[in-house]
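Researcher: Re-running this chain for the archive, since the previous output was lost when a drive failed. Same request as before.
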Amino acid sequence: MSHISTRLLVPLAVACALLAGCSGPVRTSSGAVGQADSVPNSGTASKAGGLPAQTDESKTGTVPQAPVGDSQQVIRSATMTVVVPDVIQAATRLRAIALGHGGTVTMENVVSGGEKSAYAISTVVLSVPADQLDTALTDIAAIGEVTLRTIASTDVTAKVADVDSRISTMRASIARIRDLLTRAGSIAEIAQVENELTARESELESLLAQQKALAQRVAQSPITVTLSRVPVVQPPSAPETGFLAGLKAGWHALVVFADGLATVIGALLPFLVALAVVAAPVAWLLRRRLHRPRSTGGASGDGDATH
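Model: Regenerated structure tokens:
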């Protein structure tokens, strides 16, 4: 009796195992095929909304989420204003400081030479590893007199975790869409799935670019250094005395007087010319009236004498 029971139970257990193993894939396959088959029967508008619902990770509940890192992600930056006696030497030392801390100079605008170079402002931007920021600032402060120093910190831990999670979700979504592409039967289904796949891959590339930019900003800290030059004040020279000094002073006074007189004459000359143009005809008319002969009076006198 026990032998007969054993022979009946073994095949029954094997059959149950086979049914349990096949039930999951059969339901998944039928669901995917059923939704794919419903696409051509639902029209163009339903095609645009059917396939994204198949790949919507919010409805599946099976997409693995990226774990949030325990370490805090902070972006740090600094600015400094330093007064130095020589801008060129200071810029050279800044380049050496950047290289010494494993960084580099990303921007440099140094003004030197010329009469107004003492009042010009030069700017050098360094990029150093985040863990070297404090020591780099200490070395920069040694090149001159620091008049301004600021440090800014921004916590981007949540943003980094969000981008990482979205990348993981998007990769899983792309994998499912590619699986649908292998099951698509008609040309319309293939075109629809390919369009969706292209859009998801483009979004994934954008997320990867954001992830890379955030990683670089967290890993590297920029330092903006503004360099200004100390004006050199020369001591006043002793006054010169003696005959030659007096002669030089007198000649200088004469030159200044002549220069001033020439300036005054040059300023008055246009007015004198205009006055001469107006006064010349008036003077000519007055002179003519004054020298006109009195012929009428003389003739009448002669006639009276004759009578």
